[in-house]
Write a structure and sequence with these properties.
This protein is of the alpha/beta class. Helices cover about 35% and strands about 20% of the residues.
Length: about 325
């Protein structure tokens, strides 16, 4: 008698990409699926342009894993979710943003999260973080480049993702007005003047047609407010034991590829749209971000342990910074 061998069903990975099927996140996800076949795990990709729907399909069990922004996936893991805190990975040297060093902080944190010793931190209930990679520094993008200081933002309307409560807190701290938005409508709201400012990475420039809102009067300030990342979150009951660690280590190996995508996206923005901030203001803003982070953590929105891990990475990269006189960011 012939007994059929049971065939393991393919795991479904729901992938959000701002640029749809042609985007860098999707192409990275497809390569991930191929790489994970070597670990005996068969997966297939389902693409989404609306991130909220991808997350809901994952929550409801229609997907076994989801690839989406850390701001959206933070509820699945508060520690890894802290990487996308305001100014948490920004390094300043001699009054200037050191963007290369800032990405080094992101890399170090992702490496820490991928260590076998950190594997317990990457699990909450049935959810496990299967990796992270940077989407690119998020810059303040304004319709009028006269808005070039915190003072000038007073009373202005700034788009805020309502699923990231920290944005609303920060906007109100500077006396501006948060306007609820999500990835499906943030572009049109900026372009039609419903908001004066958005904070987005360069990868959003073309898909959201932000050049329409920037026009001849607006600009993009070279001050990263945070470096958003993308997270892979697994329903760990659907994958073999030990898969999460292999997955995290794979994504560590993809960091430089992500940096290449970011570089291409930033070079795709016309040079005349970038605006450098007065160097004397930069340290002041970074300090303001730090104060906001601590306040937001004390409100329970940011994870304190996560912020302390990131501070250690910042001080590894830039040990001469005054903040490195103390070990922790927050008790």
């Amino acid at each position: 008698m012939c007994v059929a061998t049971p065939v393991m069903a393919k795991s479904l990975v729901c992938v959000w990409d701002v640029a749809g099927k042609t985007g860098d996140v999707t192409s990275s996800a497809v390569d991930y699926v191929v790489a994970m076949q070597k670990n005996g795990v068969e997966m297939e990709v389902k693409g989404y342009v609306d991130e909220r729907v991808a997350i809901e399909d994952f929550r409801s069990g229609q997907c076994d894993a989801v690839i989406a922004t850390t701001l959206r996936t933070r509820p699945f893991n508060a520690i890894s979710g802290s990487l996308d805190s305001i100014g948490a990975t920004t390094i300043v040297r001699n009054g200037k943003i050191d963007i290369k060093a800032s990405y080094d902080v992101v890399r170090k944190v992702i490496q820490i999260f991928s260590l076998p010793a950190a594997s317990k931190l990457m699990v909450e209930g049935n959810y496990e973080v299967g990796g992270l990679f940077p989407l690119g520094a998020a810059y303040p993008i304004v319709r009028d480049r006269k808005i070039n200081s915190v003072e000038a933002l007073s009373g202005k309307k700034i788009a805020a993702f309502d699923y990231d409560k920290a944005q609303g807190v920060m906007i109100q701290r500077i006396g501006a007005q948060p306007v609820s938005a999500d990835v499906t409508n943030i572009g049109p709201k900026f372009n039609n003047g419903s908001v004066d400012m958005v904070t987005l990475p360069a990868v959003a420039f073309k898909p959201f047609e932000l050049y329409k809102g920037i026009g001849t009067t607006g600009g993009i300030g070279r001050l990263p407010i945070l470096i958003p990342t993308v997270q892979i979150v697994l329903n760990k009951t659907k994958f073999p034991e030990g898969f999460g660690e292999k997955s995290r280590q794979y994504w560590v190996s993809q960091f430089d590829r992500a940096l290449h995508f970011i570089d291409v996206a930033e070079k795709g923005v016309p040079a005349n749209m970038w605006v450098d901030l007065p160097p004397e203001n930069v340290p002041k803003y970074v300090q303001m971000f730090r104060e906001a982070r601590i306040e937001i953590a004390n409100q329970g929105i940011y994870n304190k342990r996560g912020l302390n891990i990131i501070k250690r990475a910042r001080c590894d990269v830039n040990p001469s910074d005054a903040e490195c006189a103390t070990k922790t960011e927050i008790e």
